[in-house]
């Protein structure tokens, strides 16, 4: 009985430490019934989410950015990717949930960054994201959808004004070239210091 009490006290001390283990400006963000697609790296056995997060924070083999966790399976899956690298899929079995580390200065989550564009007659063509199309939108509604997207980190969108077609993207002009499509405009969320939306131009060369 005494050993059980000591174990519980040690666990509480560990959890209190975990709450302050992240660098300043960083925190954990959680999503229930979700898992990260195709970025699972290492499985650790534990029944506690905080312990799972602690292991991620202190893992040395690779930079751990997120975890999938199931208390029912006592499974903690470490990943070096997050929603900037892949997307969340529904997973409603065995109480799985997804957690990731977000840091304000890292710029992976751009939901609060400045909208720049349009780049007329161009689209981001290299995206492989599925189920990212919205119809009958305005530019403002498309921007709001990009900022609020939770399945992946939306950083840009293609917009067709004549039909209101809005295609959310996980890539920007620093990651891939634009392609010329006369009926579309391209916009992106840009976190560069001092960026001016009136004069901004994409850094990548436009692909023909």
Automatic annotation (TrEMBL):
Residues 103-191 form the Apple domain. Pfam families: PAN_1. Residues 1-21 form the signal peptide. InterPro entries: Pan_app (IPR003609). The keyword Protein biosynthesis does not apply. Keywords: Signal. SUPFAM superfamilies: Hairpin loop containing domain-like (SSF57414). This is Apple domain-containing protein. It comes from Capitella teleta. The lineage of its organism: Eukaryota, Metazoa, Spiralia, Lophotrochozoa, Annelida.
